[in-house]
């Protein structure tokens, strides 16, 4: 378990309980101590506590009052009461208010051990349930936020209490940053959504957001939406943060707060998408990459809409992933907002294009080698030919050739060679009167029986039956023509 709180006014008893907990087989990351219910309540208001051991009779605030006051808290610990025999009626009363169990004094080490084991098991099950509920909540929030036109007011109202549990009852803002900077805000109070526009989204209370904005940390380019109060305005706050993030990304600003700006759409930028896709595989790739950098330069000086430019860039990235066949080991094309700023993205994008073009060259060279191998097989099928001879002829590793040949032709080398030989044997059976034993040798079969067996397996009839059937069909057709 993460945190356990011991509330006991007598120091020696408190320290004894803590010592027994530390010696138990159940690991506890943090053990807190305090002397009365007042101090305990202050701790519970500031941080999450998994389990609380509390005495009943204490100065300032007793255990019964503490348990009653805890009803106001959004997150309550599991409570274990430390009770003397003369306090048993109080312990029973406290259990009516949700207390999990009680321990009679004097406390034994075995009792603590057994209790902690039971609590750890229960807490583990509870954590799994809570984590699943939190995942469902975050997925629902993501859906409603990104599909505002489909969301109904009731859906937002149903989620409001859970949202407020994270961000409080005051105003809030939405912040967007790249995934690489996500850990920077990991300890902020609020809601975190990963994988939003390739980065991380934070829904934070206004004071928390304001503090981060004032820092203006140069290590990240942050987009910040306006201040909002109603949870119904979360989709609007998200769109604002996204537009601000795009501007921060383009201009490399540490913090960009949303401001409404109007840009004229550029028809030539829309046409650039098709031109880029067509020219990337050609020797004009460097030209279109320079043109892309120029578009980003224009956007940084507010002469091009960041939204239009990033929309076109995203479309280019998707087409590169889908339109061209990528090598299995190559990662997908980088996406803009995965990176802190435009310069980092363009560097990664150009590197990816370089790797992609090299793979194209490699694939082209591989195809040329396979075509050379096929030509060699067709020219030499009548000889005593094997795969080692062909792979040596094109200067290619034997095993690599075997895999590449099958991928290129759809069949393995042996079957491909056999298909060519059988096809040529059929031609000779039809067009010549050569003996079957002669034909077998002419197409590369040294063994007559092997030839006849292979031919029947491939054609369903023996070579002599094939020749006879063909002549019968040909004569029949000739008679009809007459």
From TrEMBL:
PROSITE patterns: HTH_ARAC_FAMILY_2, RESPONSE_REGULATORY. Residues 3-120 form the Response regulatory domain. Keywords: Coiled coil, DNA-binding, Phosphoprotein, Transcription, Transcription regulation. Residues 371-469 form the HTH araC/xylS-type domain. It comes from the Bacteria. GO terms for biological process: phosphorelay signal transduction system. This is Stage 0 sporulation protein A homolog. It comes from Fusicatenibacter saccharivorans.
